[in-house]
Amino acid sequence: MQKKALPFSSVVAPFQRAVSWFMPKGQNPESLAAFKRQTVVSVSLLVGSSGFPFILLFTYMQHYQEAVVILWSWLFFMGIPFLARMGVRPSVLAHFLAGNYYQCHLLLCLIWGGLDAPNTMWFVAIVIASSRVSSAG
């Protein structure tokens, strides 16, 4: 009897292959360090990828400052997986991830007027993301 495929497996499998490509050579894929690296790389790719459409949107709307802030952050988010591949410790990667997320939203808040900025609510996600990857060590 054939094994039944899980829903969305056609989407998840390529993402898992991409994440596994960023793991350092010679690392045991079943180790705790590998799991922590995979978590940070996955979050970095997902959060970074979600920002890319906003670069295009803000450029189209001629909000160039916002587009540059998100482009800068996107470059950092897309660089974190390469640092993981180079063997940087998962705790350092997690700090880069949380710090990049924070600086992106802080700069957007400063551009948009402080506490009245429409992205102020996203500071809650910083705590959630940090707590999810903080045990990476």
Short description:
The chain has five helices and no strands. The protein has helices at 9-21, 32-60, 64-85, 90-112, 123-133.
Task: Determine the strand fraction and express it as a percent band.
Answer: under 5%
Order of helices and strands: HHHHH
Major pleated sheet: none
Helix content: over 70%
The pLDDT mean sits at: 86
The rounded Rg comes to 17 Å
How far apart, in Å, are the first and last alpha carbons?
42 Å
Which oligomerization state do the chains in this entry correspond to?
Answer: single chain
Number of helical stretches of at least 4 residues: 5
What this model shows, in words?
The chain has helices at about 10-20, 30-60, 65-85, 90-110, 125-135. It is built from 5 helices and no strands. The protein is globular and about 55 Å long. It is an all-alpha fold and about 140 residues long. The termini are far apart.
